Amino acid sequence: MRIIHRVAELREALSATQQAPVFVPTMGNLHEGHLDLIRRAKQHVAGSDSLVVASIFVNRLQFGPNEDFDRYPRTMERDAQLLASAGCDILFAPDEAELYPEPQGYKVVPPDTLANLLEGEFRPGFFTGVCTVVHKLFNIVQPRAAFFGKKDYQQLMVIRTMVRQMALPIDIVPVDTTRAAEGLALSSRNGYLSDAERTEALALIRSLKTIQAAVKDLRAASQPAVDAAAWLHQVEADAKSGLAARGWLPDYVTLRRQFDLLPPTAAQLQGTEPLVVLAAAKLGTTRLIDNLEV
Ligand code: PAF
């Protein structure tokens, strides 16, 4: 695996192949979930001369002033070994001066309808930071496909919409969340958790499963139409108060439509509309997110 720090060198390396590369952007501190993305990317290029490119860049633009940019774990040497063993061909690891040689005045600002709800409500500017860096990385790498984990469900949707509306010729490939044996969604931020918190962290996926089961029960029972808003309010409030009683600070636990992340109507709730339960909550000083499709 080649490790490249400069944009010009990356472009030179990529010009040697006939087919465009496939791309896995990351912020490093890699875990099995990232390696799964690399393995999927590797399968995707089989039979072509495309290369698998991963990037590691902790993107200051997507962190709020009180977030963990400074303490975000940087583990480049270990990450490079893991990427090589998973079959990555090129690791692109620019420093800030390379990716942002001047203040990044031009930004990619996603529409409020996507970016101001859920994560965007609690992390103002987050999706502008993500879209700006991902668009820039796409311009640099010019991939034909890019792989993103469903763990960051809203991020995946925001990026897909950006690619569609900007007519970027890139397939966005979603990959299921990788979980530890007990069900904890893998995340670089799990490293902040103490042993006790790691066990407690399972309460988040349990609360998602409770809502998933409630929807399944509601759909299985052929009962008259429920008041969707009241039903949702109740299950979401129960989930949040359950977490709060265990010492969590929940930002949201909510059931949404998969296609636009807005609340379902009564007919959709009781019918077959694809839904997703999403949650974000703080455990100690660590903010965790997770989701489950219904
Ligand atoms: O999901 C992440 O790790 C980051 O948001 C991404 C997509 C690499 C952009 O910095």
Describe this structure in words.
This protein is of the alpha/beta class and 294 residues long. It folds into 2 domains: 174 residues, Rossmann fold, CATH 3.40.50.620; 106 residues, Pantoate-beta-alanine ligase, C-terminal domain (Pantoate--beta-alanine Ligase, Chain: A,domain 2, 2-Layer Sandwich), CATH 3.30.1300.10. It is 41% helix and 18% strand. It has 12 helices and 9 strands. The strands form 2 sheets. The protein has a 6-stranded parallel beta sheet, sandwiched between helices. It has a 3-stranded antiparallel beta sheet with strand order 7-8-9. Strand 3, helix 3 and strand 4 form a beta-alpha-beta unit. Helix 7 packs across helix 8 and helix 10 packs antiparallel against helix 11. The longest helix is centred in the C-terminal third of the chain and has 19 residues. The model has no long low-confidence stretch (mean pLDDT 96). The structure holds pantoate. The site of pantoate (PAF) has 10 residues, from strand 2 and helix 7.
Please name the defining characteristics of this protein.
alpha/beta; three-stranded antiparallel sheet; 18% strand; Rossmann fold; binds pantoate; Pantoate--beta-alanine Ligase, Chain: A,domain 2; 294 residues; 41% helix
List the helices and strands and how they pair.
Layout: E1 2-4, H1 7-14, E2 22-26, H2 32-45, E3 52-56, H3 76-86, E4 90-92, H4 96-99, H5 112-115, H6 119-122, H7 126-141, E5 145-149, H8 153-165, E6 171-175, H9 195-200, H10 202-220, H11 228-245, E7 249-257, H12 266-270, E8 275-283, E9 286-293
Helix pairs in contact: 7-8, 10-11
Bound molecules: pantoate.
Residues 25-27, 59, 62, 130, 133-134, 152, 155 line the site of pantoate (PAF).
